[in-house]
Amino acid sequence: MEKSCSFLIEFDKGAPTLANEIKEALEGSDVSAKIDALKKAIMLLHNGETIPQLFITIIRYVLTSEDHTIQKLLLLYLEIVDKTDSNRRLLPEMILICQNLRNNLQHPNEYLRGVTLRFLCRLSEPEILEPLVPSILQCLDHRHPFVRRNAVLAVMAVYRLPGGEGLMPDAPEAIERFLASEQDASARRNAFLMLFNCAQDRAVNYLLSHVDAVPGWGELIQMVVLDLIRKVCRSNPREKGRYITIIISLLNAPSAAVMYECAGTLVSLSSAPTAIRAAATTYCQLLQSQSDHNVKLIVLDRLSELKTSHRDIMVDLIMDVLRALSSPNLDIRRKTLDIVLELITPRNIDEVVLALKKEVVKTQSGELEKNGEYRQMLVQAIHSCAIKFPEVASTVVHLLMDFLGDSNVASAIDVVVFVREIIETNPKLRVSIITRLLDTFYQIRSARVCTCALWIISEYCLSLSEVESGISTIKQCLGELPFYTVTEQGGESAPADASSKTPSVVTVSSRRPAVLADGTYATQSAASETVVSAPTLVQGSLAAPGNLRSLLLNGDFFLGAVVACTLTKLVLRLEEVQPNVVEVNKANVGALLIMVSMIQLGQSQFLSHPIDSDSYDRIVLCIRLLCNTGDEMRKIWLQSCRQSFTKMLADKQFRETEEIKARAQISHAQPDDLIDFYHLKSRKGMSQLELEDEVQDDLKRATGEFTKDADDANKLNRILQLTGFSDPVYAEAYVTVHHYDIVLDVTVINRTKETLQNLCLELATMGDLKLVERPQNYTLAPESSKQIRANIKVSSTETGVIFGNIVYETSNVLERTVVVLNDIHIDIMDYISPATCADVAFRNMWAEFEWENKVAINTVIQDEKEFLNHIVKSTNMKCLTAPSALDGECGFLAANLYAKSVFGEDALVNISIEKQVDGKLSGYIRIRSKTQGIALSLGDKITLKQKGGS
């Protein structure tokens, strides 16, 4: 068995020092040589060497040294050296050590006394400590606080030893007298800690007799007081009324650590609204006063817990929580917004939105490098507020539309998605949003933002002026046609010849809006000529970057297809609202000319990326539609698309509502539960806080919050058989996984008629698992059993394996017997839980994550939805795809699944299924994650479970 030690030191034994060399150095008179020799001896002891011949030398030549460094190293040596023989009896040489320790405890130098007392705290041999007890007690009255505080710790260490009460029977009384007269804060803390651990009743009596003085005590002793209160109230909950006043008095302590512990203690002891409000207010004060980011994150976690169980109280403090947005750290801001968004009510929505608007305006300063990410978070928060409370949308939508041309593309995308949703859910804002969008469309510099903005223009430009403005805006952003002209050096216009080696001059014209001094818009034309070699164009010479023309000339023909569809819808709607046929025909011809020019550009030899087939087909479809329009086709283009969008928003709202209901805690009380009606109780001597606490306890008991549903079947599933029934030792383990800890409760049964000696459970791990401590040896009587507990730490989401054996000895057999245990596989499902995220966030993570595991579908299940449900159930993940998107029977199914691990890791799964002619399912399940472990482990789990039935 490994020995316990107070510290670990790396020591290279490649060229070990001989014991004789160390001995000679210790016998010499050189102090520095003695120090080096002692250090080498300590290193060798820590690395398994015994060196018994040095002990007498150290006693003769080192024990009498007056050098402080040597004395400190000597105590370290005495701490780790073996003090007993093989029969666990004290070595005779230790009597000499006792005399030296006694001399040190009576030494006039306070440093020697203090370090010796601290050394005695780590001794566990009563034979050594017994003759030193009078000297230890004498040190309690020493003039120096360093000696007194260590003397108290030494008294506590001796008293807590087995049989220590016999060595110091009056220790609690002595410490209580010491506490009454001591002035040093550290010594008082140690004295109170000793009473807390060894004589709790005395500590409680002392505390209750000095209630008014507690706020004036030092930080150290106040922390011990809070520990005492928690322990007492946990063992006797009815006593908490006596201590609540002490906790409340400490909430305004000057120490931030005491304030934090006070708030946590108050929440753990009481559920009264007054207590919870006081704790939450304290947390908010810490959030503002502390500058350390880690402290802020921890406090936000506590506030998030309060929000879950006491939402009504946290709602009143929402503005205090919002002040944490002043921190420049993005993680703090993200947590703050997450808390605030769940505390929004009709009463505080205006204040919250106003604060968020101010933060958005601050991000325009550009002083911080992560302003773009912060702005994106704020836009998403405002979006969530506007969805929950549509009446606030009018106050924020126009402000956010200024960021459609933001350099941070993600932020601009969030803005345009927000605008798209608001314009559908708030019909009153439609006209103002369309007007503002057409005015700011020129500023958009991202293709993805352009596509969404074009869709909004095509669907919500309904009046004649809006349709004409929409067509005009698109034409101005596209510029003059054609998109390119090729002129030979001779000056004649001709198309570029791929076989020609003669350089050509390409003239590219573009038009872009310019803002005049009076704020109106004007059109600015630009033309550039570049000498190039056909058939390749230099892409950087095309046009001013950012508008539709430059995006098209850069080869983005998906945007070109969207432009074609937008023009088609606008022209079709113009036919309905414009009585003048000539104007309609003019707009129709203009749209056709733009589409043909885009196809001509895509098929030219001057772009490195020619038009793709999907975009080509879409533009051709728009051309055919404008040439020959039927009523059914017109209905599909002008009505069905918007109806689908409306249905998508309704499904999204329904899913969010269902998730809120699912997260709500549903508990049922048992019919025979006892309820104490506090109105019928005697209120004599009870404070208002205690009365509120009684009410809350009654409510929790009535609603079944105290009821713990024990699933016995689930517990049985966690019991794993480690050995066979015919083995002399039978063992089984109950595995409990709790976040970062795995606890193995192993039951070992001796099935023989002999006594098993030195029985040890030896475990080893594979993967990111670590055994915390090795179980000790046991002696097992015939046909008896023993419960052995082993703790294992987990550091990542990965399928780990625990293996090992049981080793024991019998009186008849000299060698040890080994029983090999079955392996314990830690399931990844214990680490991940279903979670939700936005579609945009899912796609972004899918693009960023580098680890992918591709699993082929191989199952006997023949229904696509049944297989999807089976995978969701087997992997403990959440299906992000809307149920409406999974309706119908088409032989194909694609869905996205998402989960988060307890370590904050994201697990993304995409399922693509196709039903074959023979009825079997085929396709792939793709898993992506940021780390390799979760991708591989989840893939193994899916491979094991996908066949169904298990």
From TrEMBL:
CC annotations in GO: COPI vesicle coat; Golgi membrane
Domain (Coatomer beta subunit C-terminal): residue spans on this chain: 671-809
Alphabetized InterPro entries for the sequence: ARM-like (IPR011989), ARM-type_fold (IPR016024), Clathrin/coatomer_adapt-like_N (IPR002553), Coatomer_bsu_C (IPR011710), COPB1 (IPR016460), COPB1_appendage_platform_dom (IPR029446)
Pfam families in alphabetical order: Adaptin_N, Coatamer_beta_C, Coatomer_b_Cpla
Location of the Coatomer beta subunit appendage platform domain: 815-942
GO biological process: endoplasmic reticulum to Golgi vesicle-mediated transport; intra-Golgi vesicle-mediated transport; intracellular protein transport
Cellular location(s): Cytoplasm; Golgi apparatus membrane; Cytoplasmic vesicle, COPI-coated vesicle membrane
Keywords assigned: Cytoplasm, Cytoplasmic vesicle, ER-Golgi transport, Golgi apparatus, Membrane, Protein transport, Repeat, Transport
Ranges of residues in domain Clathrin/coatomer adaptor adaptin-like N-terminal: 20-471
Membrane topology: Peripheral membrane protein
GO molecular function: structural molecule activity
Physiological role: The coatomer is a cytosolic protein complex that binds to dilysine motifs and reversibly associates with Golgi non-clathrin-coated vesicles, which further mediate biosynthetic protein transport from the ER, via the Golgi up to the trans Golgi network. Coatomer complex is required for budding from Golgi membranes, and is essential for the retrograde Golgi-to-ER transport of dilysine-tagged proteins.
Complexes and interactors: Oligomeric complex that consists of at least the alpha, beta, beta', gamma, delta, epsilon and zeta subunits.
Protein name: Coatomer subunit beta
Native organism: Acorus calamus
